[in-house]
Design a protein that fits this description.
Blueprint: H1 2-7, H2 10-35, H3 43-61, H4 74-89, H5 102-111, H6 115-135, H7 143-204, E1 208-213, E2 218-221, H8 223-232, E3 247-248, H9 262-267, E4 272-279, E5 286-296, E6 302-311, H10 313-349, H11 356-383, E7 392-395, H12 396-413, E8 416-421, E9 427-430, H13 432-448, E10 454-463, E11 466-473, H14 480-483, H15 494-498, H16 507-517, E12 521-526, E13 532-539
Parallel strand pairs: 8-10
Antiparallel strand pairs: 1-2, 1-6, 3-4, 4-5, 5-6, 7-9, 10-11, 11-13, 12-13
Helix pairs in contact: 2-3, 3-4, 4-5, 4-6, 5-6, 5-7, 6-7, 10-11, 12-13, 13-16
């Protein structure tokens, strides 16, 4: 109430402070002729009524705004005089009128001005009002007279002190609230400025960023994200309805089901990266790499997610063009190489009449042509964007036995022992041709990278819906930084190049692709001089089986 009161004009404030007492005195003046007509013969009582009338008129006509703020306190002081006149003028009939002093005393105490003077007036005023009626009994004072003369002023002083303390407390609280309000306004202003800065930064990026709550309601999105939403939304669907948007799988044709779309996966609490989708209708489709991170509240519960959309159309198209080039070149190489090998085989089959040196040279040509053909085959397979797999229930132990049989000759030439520790049968959901190819790659590499002999061990175990197949060697090993890049295309370690170990750096990349197409994974653990261990993970059953 104090804040609206302070906003009023000075004159209005004075009138409102005087109004309660004026209303009581007005009612008293109206009732006097009918209830206590004898009081009208008292000039003191009439003087009190007159003084009240003058005071209320003065409250309206005085230019309080031009005067000192404490000038208005003359009104409650004169109110004490007017109440004294009323009380003493009507003392025989209405001695209780003295209680009216509470109005001016409240005014004086609550004003907060001239504090000491107001407290003195709050005690002395009632004392002087009570004094005339008590002095009449001098010198025969009754105990009640002395008690009223002393106790009533003390009571009014106590009232003034209580109001004063309450007013001070209220003002202190108001100042604290004002300071708190100012601090909150500053924080709000700072928060808005930071929000503007954040949105400016987000809008300046070339990736789409969106934040959603656990119900899928959009909390924040930058301009790029809104453009993605507009591109993905059909004409009759709003951008906010992500379940009806044009979001396609990597083949650019299959519409992704709602639960496989980036926002749906993020709202389910998934964290992922490099999830490639195609957005928009043909022929304006764009390749988008998406990533998501969940947002957790203080209790560890899912509160939402942040999803990032990056346009990688140029990169995908460049990779596709590169794959097409490699595939075409590999195809062009394959035909003449097959012709060369075929003719060399025919010549070597009838080599009895050839000089020994010519046979040796033709054998070198045959061996290198076969290496070149194997490299072309790897390039063709690596360039294939759609490596086909046909998984079925497969006994891994049988694949290991076949692999060891195929690699035994190579192992014998390198003085490498092959050891298998695989339970039989060991079932997995896999394409036997492709997993056999992957296993051959790993065993062949293990033998090649054990130039001084050693042991290559193949182990397999089945646990919790997965089969883990490990190929371990005791060869030269590699540094941790090389192990982290070993599945990259065309990567070869410096040690392998120095040792002139043949290879193009494609076998492990192809092996990784094969495992990923099965829904599995491959990992490498290695240390220089301590050999390497490659671990393949395959599902026991089909996904959802």
């Amino acid at each position: 109430m104090e804040q609206p009161f302070r906003k009023l004009g000075r004159r209005t404030q004075v009138v409102l402070c005087q109004l309660p007492l004026t209303l009581v005195v007005t009612v008293l003046g109206v009732m006097t002729p009918f209830t206590w007509p004898s009081i009208l013969s008292s000039p003191v009582y009439l003087a009190g009524l007159t003084l009240h009338l003058i005071l209320i008129v003065a409250c309206f006509v005085m230019p309080w705004e031009r005067l000192h703020p404490s000038a208005c306190l003359i009104v409650p002081v004169l109110d004490l005089l007017a109440v004294g006149l009323l009380r003493n003028g009507a003392a025989p009939l209405l001695p209780g009128l003295v209680i009216l002093v509470v109005f001016p005393i409240i005014w004086l105490a609550a004003s907060g001005m001239l504090v000491r003077t107001s407290l003195v007036v709050s005690a002395v005023g009632p004392f002087l009002i009570m004094l005339p009626t008590t002095a009449v009994h001098f010198p025969n004072f009754a105990a009640a007279d002395i008690t009223a003369l002393v106790l009533f002023p003390l009571m009014m002083l106590a009232v003034a002190l209580a109001i004063r303390f309450a007013s001070v407390n209220v003002r202190v609280q108001q100042r604290e609230l004002q300071a708190l309000g100012e601090e909150l306004r500053e924080l709000l202003t700072e928060s808005r400025e930071r929000e503007k800065l954040l949105m400016t930064i987000l809008d300046a990026t070339d990736v789409g960023i969106v934040a959603v709550d656990s119900n899928g309601n959009q909390l924040l999105a930058n301009n790029m994200m809104r453009r993605w939403q507009g591109r993905a939304a059909p004409a009759a669907v709003g951008p906010a309805d992500h379940t009806e948007q044009h979001v396609f799988a990597q083949d650019k044709v299959t519409l992704l089901p709602p639960d496989k779309r980036p926002l749906s996966r993020a709202m389910a609490g998934e964290a992922f990266a490099d999830y490639l989708v195609w957005i928009g209708a043909a022929p304006q489709q764009r390749a988008v790499s998406t990533a998501a991170r969940p947002l957790m509240d203080d209790g560890g519960r899912l509160a939402g997610a942040v999803v990032v959309f990056s346009d990688v159309t140029g990169l995908v198209e460049a990779m596709s063009a590169n794959q097409d080039l490699v595939s075409n070149v590999s195809h062009e190489f394959r035909s003449p190489l097959n012709s060369i090998l075929g003719n060399i085989d025919l010549v070597l089959e009838d080599s009895d009449g050839l000089p020994h040196q010519a046979v040796q040279r033709l054998t070198v040509v045959q061996r290198n042509s076969e290496r070149l053909l194997a490299l072309v085959s790897d390039l063709t397979l690596e360039a294939s964007a759609a490596l086909k797999i046909h998984p079925k229930r497969t006994d891994i132990s049988g694949l290991v036995e076949t692999c060891i049989g195929s690699a035994q000759a190579q192992a014998d030439r390198s003085s490498v022992a092959l050891v298998a520790d695989v339970p039989s049968p060991l079932w997995a959901y896999a394409d036997p041709l492709r997993i056999g190819q992957a296993l051959d790659n790993l065993v062949s590499n293990a033998i090649k990278f054990s130039p001084d002999g050693g042991t290559v061990t193949i182990r397999a175990t089945g646990t919790k819906g997965w089969v883990r197949l490990a190929v371990q060697d005791t060869g030269m090993g590699m540094a941790p930084e090389d192990a982290a890049k070993v599945f990259s295309r065309f990567f070869r370690t410096e040690a392998a190049r120095d040792a002139a170990i043949p290879g193009a750096g494609l076998g492990l990349s192809i092996t990784k692709t094969i495992l990923e197409r099965h829904g599995g994974a491959i990992a490498c653990h290695s240390a220089l001089g301590s050999g390497s261990t490659f671990t393949m993970t395959l599902p026991v059953e089909a996904a959802g089986g």
